[in-house]
Amino acid sequence: MAKADIELKIPSAVFYIEPVRAFIGNLAQSLGFPRKRVADIQLVLDEICTNAVHHGSANAAVGVKLRIEIDAHALEILVRDTGSGDAKRKNWLTHERLSEIEANRSPSSESGHGIFIAKSLSDTHEMQSNEVGGTDVRVVFHLLKSSNTEL
Predict the structure, then answer these.
(1) Which pLDDT does position 100 carry in this prediction?
(2) Are the C-beta atoms of residues 87 and 31 closer than 8 Å to each other?
(3) Does CATH number 1.10.1020.10 belong to domain 4-142?
(4) Which of 17, 20, 49, 85 has its CA 20 to 30 A from that of 8?
């Protein structure tokens, strides 16, 4: 398979995440990921896009950008938000904030689990501030093709 790059931009509204989730699921399935792994990829995408919409976007018009890179061995997804627009809080997630979120995560809380899910289910998970004042979240899923299908 030849390497391919796909770029998408969606409005910063939860309504638009489901079609992207379906697209990524179909893409992952076409690439040969097992059904369980496709579900993991969709869940991670849902979590990081939801975080970008709720915490990292000034308004719906600004949008959230996605860059999807595929090759014969991996599916890489980058989700980029533009920040909250609050001058005091340049981006919604810093290393200090990540530590705080992880420390306060509990089963009884509805928030704070998305980052943990993304880190747990992806093969690579990176977060960093971007030049537009927001956060970039990059996840990678490796495609493991077995040459021997017998157990």
Answers:
(1) 60
(2) no
(3) no
(4) 85
What does the alpha-carbon distance between residue 111 and residue 64 come to, in Å, rounded to a whole number? 20
pLDDT of residue 46: 96
Q: Which residue has the tokens 């919604």?
A: 92
**Amino acid occupying residue 149:** T
- Spans in the chain with pLDDT lower than 70: 1, 84-113, 145-151
Angle between helix 114-121 and helix 35-55 axes, rounded to 10 deg: 150
Torsion of CA 39, 21, 9, 110, to 10 degrees: -80
Express each pLDDT in 85-115 by its tens digit: 654 544 455 555 666 656 665 555 555 568 8
Bridge pairing between strands 124-129 and 135-142: antiparallel
**R_g (Cα) of the chain, nearest Å:** 16
How far is it, in rounded angstroms, from Cα 9 to Cα 92?
Answer: 19
Give residue limits of the domains in the chain. Answer: 4-142
